[in-house]
Amino acid sequence: QTCALPISPTYLRTYLSYLWNTFKHPIIVSEFGFPVWDEADKALPDQLFDTPRSIYYLSFMSEILKSIWEDHVHVLGALAWSFADNWEFGDYSAHFGLQTVNRTTQVRNYRKSFFDLVDFVNARTMPNGAGGIGTASASASWSGVGSTQTSTSW
Predict the structure, then answer these.
(1) Whose CA is closest to 77, among 152, 2, 141?
(2) Spacing of C-alpha 63 from chain mean position
(3) What is the rounded distance in angstroms from the CA atom of residue 80 to the CA atom of residue 33?
(4) Cis before 82 (ω within 30)
(5) ∠ CA(11), CA(17), CA(23), 5° rounding?
């Protein structure tokens, strides 16, 4: 059984500001992710429509963007945990992945949260040549596809 984790990005922005103002070094938000309660026991269609995970990622990413644009924190990027369901806490029952993995056939299916996260990043990525903080091409935003973690840069 996976424990229920609260979705609370409230203090992330404050913490990022604290880190930036204290240490003056660029920040990478690493390995943030969300396991949907009892997802391992759900049918595949229910696993693929993972709204709580989407809400988690979009709310945390919004707070990261506020810290960049409103508080002028130098955030280099964020690493979603994880690209695919994997061994967590001694078994496979905690599903953190942006895609499901059938342990018998190794077939993988992208979850709704993957597409929501890609849409979020693409809608907020500056076009090439626009300059300023956050310049990245849409294709560069997902250069980690195929690895265990997906790197997102602005």
Answers:
(1) 152
(2) 12
(3) 6
(4) yes
(5) 130
The helix/strand/coil state of 149 is: coil
Q: Model's pTM, two decimal places? A: 0.75
Handedness of CA 123, 53, 46, 40 (dihedral sign): positive
Bridge partner residues of 152 (DSSP): 78
What Å distances lie between residue 66 and 12, 13, 59, 132, CA to CA?
Answer: 10, 7, 11, 16
Over residues 106-141, the pLDDT tens digits come to: 999 999 999 999 999 999 987 776 655 444 433 333
Q: Within 13 Å of residue 137, how many CA atoms lie on the same side as its CB?
A: 5
